[in-house]
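Dissemination and training. As part of the outreach component of the grant, students in the summer workshop were shown how a complex can be specified as a set of sequence lines and then modelled as a single object. The example used during the hands-on session is reproduced here so that future cohorts can follow it. Participants entered these lines:
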Amino acid sequence: MDRPLTHHIQPDKQPLSLKKYEKQGGYQAVQKALRDFDPVDLQNHVKEAGLKGRGGAGFNTGLKWSFVPMGDDAPRPKYLVANADEMEPGTFKDRLLMESNPHLFLEGIILSAYAIGAEKSYIFLRWAYHLSKKNLEKAIAGAYENNYLGENIQGSGFNLDLHIHISAGRYICGEETALLNALEGKRANPRAKPPFPQTSGLWGKPTIVQNVETLANVPGIVNNGINWYKDISNSEEDGGTKLYGVSGKVKNPGLWELPMGTTSREIIEEHAGGMQDGLKLNGWLPGGASTDFMVEEHLDVPMDYGSVMEIGSRLGTGTMIVLDDQTCPVGMIENLEHFFAQESCGWCTPCRDGLPWTEKILHAIEHGEGKMEDLDQLARHSKWLGPGKTYCALAPGAVEPLQSGLKYFREDFERHINEQRCPWS
Amino acid sequence: MLSPEEKHEIDEELKHLPYKESAAIDALKIVQNHRGWVTDEALDDVGEYLDMSPDALDSIATFYNLIFRKPVGEHVIRICDSVSCYLTGYENLRDAITKKLGIKLGGTTEDNKFTFLPIQCLGTCDHAPAMMIDDELYRDLTPEKLDEIFAQYK
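and obtained this result:
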């Protein structure tokens, strides 16, 4: 099976040196693209391959690039920003790529910048990822030395500068317009859209913000072509492979590169080894904290963007968080809403006031002080905080585990209220 | 007054940025790194250097959870309280640290050695529960492992 994202990764997880990476076919995609592709051809190539954003939104990457103004009269400079903030709870995939395969990530940045004609790029990296920073700094220095970054890259006339910005925290920085404000040195409040960053982003210039894993997909597409990219996927619509992860009380928590569209059953039972002894699977969040619960009946749903959406959830980041039968679902949801309430940037009223309200209700229910009408209030909040009520997707994401939790674990909520205690404690 | 080192480090960031105020967050992190936390005086110093008002800087400083506007201990313990660590027993770990150091989340030990804070998901969920002490990551934690870890900070 082809594993374009991880086949360079050594058993000890140490990153390859630039020379060794080159020997294994590294940076050939950059050479090829600069030689054979016009930037707009590269945009179309990636669009047709069916690469979708791996940060969670699942938007077609090449299509996103096509909104950037091209040509001599396009505003300059244009920017390519790698979103390496990875703060979605339960998500640990970009860390692996940056720590153990930094050159593949850089290659993706260079190719993507070339496709949109960007001359400046930033990696927006979360503070906690010290090893990522160290390994990326070394890789970037090597890329400059070998003229994969800097002026007139490989004699093509294409210039690209790359700088790492270390974040000062807050989950909201993962939202692309909030991230741009943070890069500009401001409070990370999301911006109103339109204008979209593709036309007016960083310092008002055309900007593409792309997740680490998304960028790491681009070299493989350039090297091996559209048909190969579609063939390595198990999904009808979405190309490529996916870094799927599992955390929670399974036997073997971890991260695996598998064909896009692999089922949850295969991921949880085979790769993660199933539940720890004595525990049963009660449900899981398929792609980080801000996705709707899936339950046993969904074990055979292919984990691609369209299939997961059909059953009312989202693939998100593809890193699953597994709930076992010995852990209280209400307690888990309270933990999630505590996170979202804390991380609201405070810009929009429904999010700023609504999320602490849901947390307070959940806390009361979990601690034996809930009333039946609280469940109606939680259901109302799920709607009031849903899509279209706020500038960004934080609040709509926050209510995904809440609304689905109310649906699948209704009896557990009611038991807490009827018994005036947590049945798990 | 900013020290020559602080100025030098801020200048390095400015090389990559088109406007002075774009370095506000970097500059706050730099002075915190040298001084332990961001004092009112530090806001004045940075403001003067970047042509910004101290109030504008304060609005930025108070937004980001990794910038301190209050003093912290010599070492900062950050325990992940997000969902994967919740599922794998972060509460036991938190209580064990509280018992060991005699401080709750948000507190600093009397000898000023440790400040104990919660942190959002550390992105190492397959090795939960996790915490960081300063820049060091500790994973697959149990309360039994704490003695050995804290012995390194004596």
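The mean pLDDT of chain A is 97. Students were then asked to discuss how this feature might be tested experimentally.
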